[in-house]
Amino acid sequence: MALRAALARFSAAKKRGTRAGGGRCEETVASNLQRLTAAIKRQKQKGAWPKALALLSAAARKGEERDLVAFTAAADVCARGSAWKAALAVLKELRSEGLAPDLVLWCALGSACSAAAQWRRALHLSLQAVREECLAPNAFSFGSAMSACSRASQWDKVLSLLEEAQSLGLANSFTFSSAITALANSADSESGWGRALCLWEEAQNAEMGNVVTFNATLTALERASQWHRACELLDSGGIRPDEVSYSSVATACARWHLWERSLALLSSCLVRPTLGGQSCLVRAMGHARAWEQALHHWNSNGLRGSEVSASTAWALEVAGLTPELRTFASSSGRKELTLLDFVQRRAPRGQLHAVLNEVRHFARKEWLKLAAGAKASVLRAVLRPGDAVLELGCFVGFSALLAAQRLRQLGGGGKVVSCELNPVSAMVARALIAWAGADDEVEVRVGLASDWIASGQLGRPDVVILDHRGSRYHEDLNALEPHLGKGARVLADNVLSPGAPLFLSFVDGRYDVTVHEVPEFRRKGRLDWMLLCAPLHRHARQSAAPAPPEFRELSAEVDRLCWRSSSAKVYGGDWQELQEQLEPVLRRFADARGWTSALSPRTNIRSPPSPGTRLWLQFSIVGRCKVSIAAEATCVEARPTLIRVAAAAANGAAHVRTESQASHALQQLEDARGAAQGAGGVLVLQYVTRPGRHEAMGQASYLAPARLKRNLEESWISAWASRNHGGAGSSDLLDSERTAVEDS
C-alpha cells in the first residue's frame, strides 16, 4: 500500500510539474539541484524511499529541474530500503524526463533488486541492460551482479561471472570478495570453504588480495565451522588482520564452544574488535565464569547501551548473580516500557488473568507481536499437567504468563523458563510476571538461547517453545535434543511470518510434525504457521539433510528484513511480499509430507479415541450467512496429534437474514455437506479428552471445495464423541457443555 501511494503521488506530481524555464538563473538552478540531491541522500540511512520519492515529486510540482544525480540518489535510497519496484519507477520517470541512465544508475538499480533478493533482475540490470544501452560494464557492474547472486546462494553463477570478469580484465578485490562470499553462503559448505581458500590464493597471486578478501575467506571458514583452518589463515601473515578478522575467527571458535581459545584470541588482539567480537569476548568470559572480567570489560570500554550489554548481563546471571537489568538496558524500548506502565495502572496486582487481558488491550491500540488469539489456543493445547516449559524468546512475557495460567488450570505444578536477549524486554517481562503474581512459576533469563543451552542450566524440558530468531530454530533445537525429556513436544511459532524455512528442512524425517495455520493477532488477512513437533524414536529418525538452496535463499531474505527492521522502518508491503514468496514454497514442502492435513486446534490436545468410536459432528460455518451441519462418523485412524474419521451421513440447515442471501446459502450448504463427507469420505480433526467424551475443534475449509475456501475465512468445526458405541443424538450434541475458549 505504501508503495502504491508513493508512486501515485510521484505520478501526479509529474503531470503537474513543468521543466525549469530558460530565464531562471543558472546559479539558482544549480543550488536547487544540490539542495534536492542532499535532501534525498539524507534519507538513505533509514531507507526512507517514500520520502525520497516525495522530494522528487515536490521538485516537479515547483517546476524545479531534476538531474541524473538526483534520480541516482533516489535509486540509492530505494536500494537501501529494498524497494526494487520503486527503483524501477525512478528509472521510468527519468526516461520520461528525456534523461539517459548512466552506469552508476544501472548499478544502483541492480543493488535495489539485489537487496530485495531479486537476483535475476539484478543480473539483468547490472550487465545485460547496460550492454543494451551500449555501455561497457566495469568492475563495479560485475561486483554488483555477483553480490546479488551471492545473496541468493547462486555460487555457481558467481564463479562464471568471475571468470568473465577475469577474461575482460575487470577482476579486482571486490569481485574476488563477492565470489568468496557466495561460496560462504553456498549450500555445499563442505566443499565451499575449500573453493574459497583456492580463490583466496588466486587473488593473492594476482595481487588482488586485500583485507576485505581476507575477511571474506575467514567468514567462509567460520560458516563452515572450520575454526582450526581459520586460525591457521589468521596466523599465516601477508595480510594485517583488522577487527573484523579477529571477530570472525573468534566467532568460529565460539561455534564449537572453544571459549578459552576465543577469549585468548580476542584478548591478544592488537586492534579493537567489532561490537560482535566484543560480545563474543564477554560471552567467552561468561562461559569461563569470569563475570568480574566481563563486567570490567563492559564498564571500561564504553559499551553501555550496545549489544554487548546483553552478553554482560548473561555472564553475571550464568554465574549465579542477579544483575539489575535497568543498568544494562539501552535507550530503546519505549513501547515495552509504555506497556508496563499501562498494565500496572489498569490491572490489579496478583491477578494473572487481568494482566493478560490488559496486555491484549494494549496490543489493540499499539500493535505487539503476541501469541494471542488462535495462537494462544494452540499454546494451551500443547501443555499437560506438571510440564517443564522452556521458551526461547520471551519478549514481554505474554506467552510465559499464558503457559503459567494454563498449568494452573491443569492442577498446578510445572515451571516456565523463558530466555530473552534484549535486557529491556526481559526487564519488562519480569516486572509484568511479578505484577501478575507468577514469579514463582515463571523465570526469565537474559542472554542468547544458545549460550544458556551450552551452559547446561536449563534442565530437561517437556515442552520447548521456539519464538526467537527463525533462522536459529534448527541450530538451537539441535543443541537441545540431548536434553529433551521423554515425550517432549516442540512448538515453533512464526514459521511462516516472518518465516523459518531452515527449521522445516531440519525437522523433516526427524520429528512427527503437524502444521497449524492460524491468523496473526490483530493482523487482518495475515496468516502464520505454528509447528507442533514430536521427536521420532532414534531408530526411525533420519540424519539431518542439507537444506534446499531455495530454503537457504529465503532464510537469508527473512534475516535481512528482520535485521533491517531493527534499525530502519520496514513497510507492511515488504512483509507481505516476503510472505507471498515464502508461502507457496513452504506449503508445497509441507503438503508433500502430509504435515498440513491436521486442522488448527481450539482446545486441549489429549489422548485420541480408539478406532471404531462413533462420532457426532457439528459444523458451524459463518460466511455471508450461517450454515449448520450435523454428521455421523466413525473414527478410522488415531495419531498423537490428529484423528481421521469417515462420515456416513450429513444433514444441515442454512440460516439467512435476508432473502438475497438464500441462493448463496443453498450453494454454501451443498459445499458444507461435501466438506462433511470429506475428500473421499475422510475428515481430519484435532481432538481433546474431556470427562465422558472427546472434543475437537478445527478449520473446516481445508477439506471444502475451492469456492468455500475462498469465501469462508473463519470456518470452525465442533465434534463430540461418546466413549460408548451407542453415541449421542444430535439434540444431545447441540445441548452439551462447550469448552470456553479465550481470545476467540
From TrEMBL:
<keyword id="KW-0489">Methyltransferase</keyword>
<keyword id="KW-0128">Catecholamine metabolism</keyword>
<comment type="similarity">
    <text>Belongs to the class I-like SAM-binding methyltransferase superfamily. Cation-dependent O-methyltransferase family.</text>
</comment>
<dbReference type="InterPro" id="IPR002885">
    <property type="entry name" value="PPR_rpt"/>
</dbReference>
<keyword id="KW-0949">S-adenosyl-L-methionine</keyword>
<feature type="region of interest" description="Disordered">
    <location>
        <begin position="724"/>
        <end position="744"/>
    </location>
</feature>
<protein>
    <recommendedName>
        <fullName>catechol O-methyltransferase</fullName>
        <ecNumber>2.1.1.6</ecNumber>
    </recommendedName>
</protein>
<dbReference type="Pfam" id="PF01535">
    <property type="entry name" value="PPR"/>
</dbReference>
<keyword id="KW-0808">Transferase</keyword>
<dbReference type="Pfam" id="PF13578">
    <property type="entry name" value="Methyltransf_24"/>
</dbReference>
<dbReference type="GO" id="GO:0006584">
    <property type="term" value="P:catecholamine metabolic process"/>
</dbReference>
<dbReference type="GO" id="GO:0032259">
    <property type="term" value="P:methylation"/>
</dbReference>
<dbReference type="InterPro" id="IPR029063">
    <property type="entry name" value="SAM-dependent_MTases_sf"/>
</dbReference>
<feature type="repeat" description="PPR">
    <location>
        <begin position="67"/>
        <end position="101"/>
    </location>
</feature>
<dbReference type="InterPro" id="IPR011990">
    <property type="entry name" value="TPR-like_helical_dom_sf"/>
</dbReference>
<feature type="repeat" description="PPR">
    <location>
        <begin position="138"/>
        <end position="172"/>
    </location>
</feature>
<feature type="compositionally biased region" description="Basic and acidic residues">
    <location>
        <begin position="735"/>
        <end position="744"/>
    </location>
</feature>
<dbReference type="GO" id="GO:0016206">
    <property type="term" value="F:catechol O-methyltransferase activity"/>
</dbReference>
<dbReference type="InterPro" id="IPR002935">
    <property type="entry name" value="SAM_O-MeTrfase"/>
</dbReference>
